[in-house]
Design a protein that fits this description.
Keywords: Endonuclease, Hydrolase, Nuclease. By secondary structure, the protein is α+β, with helices and mostly antiparallel strands. Helices cover about 35% and strands about 20% of the residues. About 30% of the residues are buried. The structure holds zinc ion.
Length: about 220
Amino acid sequence: MNGDYLNKVLKIKAKHALYHENGKWYHNLQKFPGVLFDKNGYLIFDNKEAYFNHPSLQSNKDLFIKNGIESLTEYRRFTEFEHQLIKGISPHDVNNAGFEETVRVLREVNSILRKKSLVDKLKKLYDNTCQICGTRLAISQNQFYSEVHHIVPLGEPYNGKDRMDNMICVCPNHHVQLDLKAIPIDEKSLKSIKHEISSNYIDHHNLLVEGLSKA
Ligand SMILES: [Zn+2]
């Protein structure tokens, strides 16, 4: 786990984020707002004064908090939803979380971490046409709709890469099936291939599909 990831995925928007599992030792925060995380929650400091004048923080060269940041009144525990965002969600959780919840969390994490420019580029490259079935979903006379799926999901636990060779342009139906690992990706049977897709990422997806079908 690391501070930058948590800061991003929880949309805290701190300028400096640090993580330590038990919350008892950190380097000093250098930029504000700043945030300290431990494994169960976090502490935000809006500005330098709030940080350096805090009665319970001994900040010399490094920061020591005897009973951990969880002992401080401003400490916030991760909510259940935040927990889900942090760990991402694996298709193995589907039975616990339900299909809709799984798709919602996957997409929330994805939309926070992805580069929209790459997504737009891929949709344009395929002219909003699903690479799996060839559907080009019309929204109006000259507007079409497609989605981009990250083959290895962004965020925990997979930490897929936000790059074109980890992406595929699909229709909403196929996007749901891919998110839930309901169908394998067979590169040879794709309707259209105009960019390079990593076969490692496809293998990763297909292994999960296979694993789930046996579960
Ligand atoms: Zn499709």
